[in-house]
Specification:
180 residues; alpha/beta; 4 helices
């Protein structure tokens, strides 16, 4: 006799980060979701209408994935997809909140983005968009990065590979209970 399957409900998708609260703050601004649980090394956000949320846990050995990956690179284990009505507006909003667009964009109706610690996520429209992807110039990305830095927010590049000639990042307090 087979064992009956228990009731299982997806509560959240959990992303590791060097600082759970900082990454949760990015997704809170990006999505407009509010935290429903916050403790040292852990934050959970839920959408206002209900459903599964996003969890964030501090993991000091976190290594950002490489996308697109080559053999030997740190692979992404998953990515998040967000459907949007206006791709250009959504990209501008994501960048203003601290994301950066990937250099390689494989589809004209999808934008691959990286959150502030390097997790890839996609913005997409659910209709065929004719033509080539709109150009995302390096100058525009540099301008957005300068604006973010001017607001005191950390860019993805700084989070992954800090500029050694720049000011030292503040030391992070170790959370002894924050185990992956």
């Amino acid at each position: 006799m087979a064992t009956p399957r228990p009731s299982l409900t997806l509560s959240s998708t959990v992303l590791d980060a060097p600082d759970a609260a900082e990454l949760a703050g990015f997704y809170r601004r990006l999505l407009g979701w509010e935290p429903v649980q916050e403790e040292p090394g852990w934050v959970k956000l839920l959408p206002p209408g209900g459903g599964s949320g996003l969890g964030f846990q501090t993991s000091e050995p976190y290594v950002p994935p490489v996308w697109p990956a080559s053999p030997g690179d740190q692979l992404m284990m998953l990515h998040l997809d967000f459907e949007v009505a206006d791709l250009e507006t959504a990209v501008a909003h994501a960048v203003a909140e601290g994301a950066r667009p990937a250099e390689f964009q494989p589809q004209h109706d999808v934008r691959v983005m990286f959150d502030p610690v390097g997790h890839p996520f996609c913005l997409f429209v659910n209709e065929e968009a004719p033509g080539e992807p709109p150009a995302i110039s390096p100058e525009w990305v540099a301008e957005q990065t300068r604006e973010i830095a001017g607001q005191g927010r950390v860019t993805a590049q700084d989070a992954v590979a800090p500029d050694p000639s720049g000011p030292a990042a503040p030391a992070r307090r170790a959370e002894p209970d924050a185990q992956p």
